[in-house]
Amino acid sequence: MNTQTLEQMKELRLYGMYRAFTSALSSQSIAYTNDELIAYLLQSEWDDRQNRKIERLTKAAKFRYKAVMEDIAFDAARNIDKNQIQRFASCQFIDKKENILITGSTGTGKSYIASAIGHQACSLGYKVTYFNANKLFTMLKTSKADGSYIKQINKLERQDVLVLDDFGLKGLDHINRQMLMEIIEDRHGKRSTIMASQLPIEAWHQTIGEQTIADAILDRLVHTAHRIDIKGESMRKKLRNKS
């Protein structure tokens, strides 16, 4: 009977329950009541499905780093508010449709923090996608040529969090400027955006170009944004010196 039950669990794709029941059958030291066994099997299936969901969300996000909030360094010289970062871990900023803008010099850990917040959002069941800004614009230009632009823009709009990394390394041309405006307009008041840049926010206006559009983009980005301005020397340089 147990063999038949296990086979039925596999056919029904109750993999967490299957593994838990197999473990319970092989364990001679733990005696479950009927109620305890049912609760154990259901909890195991729930945990398994949640873990697989997180894995799917994390894989789909395509993060640059495998980053976790617990590994963020809060050295005083870095000017990172630990309480602020810990508040981001609850992901309430997503529910409030707020943005996060991260600035700092090369190697100071902007991308890592952005990725860590994104990973945390995935762990809580939010849909996240990560892009290097230049690669995103290149992809969207290609999609205009092959007819998939609307599909790509709609996909971006559906993401609970869009992480846009390395923004401002190159000034925006007219097409990129229009695409960024469309992305930000679609997400404004509906979804959260995390942007990381080497440039201070005050310099973004010049990078975007065309005053009217730059004003519109920054008004939508900055108005509901939390800011992280990282100071200090390059973390990559520190790690090289230690090794």
UniProtKB/TrEMBL annotation:
**Family annotation (InterPro entries):** AAA+_ATPase, DNAC/IstB-like, IstB, IstB_ATP-bd, P-loop_NTPase
According to the entry, every stretch annotated as the AAA+ ATPase domain falls at: 96-234
Biological processes annotated in GO: DNA replication
The UniProt keyword set, sorted, is: ATP-binding, Nucleotide-binding
Membrane spanning residue stretches: none
Question: What CDD domains does its record include?
Answer: AAA (cd00009)
Superkingdom classification of source: Bacteria
Q: What Gene3D superfamilies does this protein map onto?
A: P-loop containing nucleotide triphosphate hydrolases
Q: Which GO terms describe its molecular function?
A: ATP binding
The UniProt similarity line reads: Belongs to the IS21/IS1162 putative ATP-binding protein family.
Name of the molecule in the record: ATP-binding protein
**Taxonomic lineage from the root:** Bacteria, Pseudomonadati, Bacteroidota, Flavobacteriia, Flavobacteriales
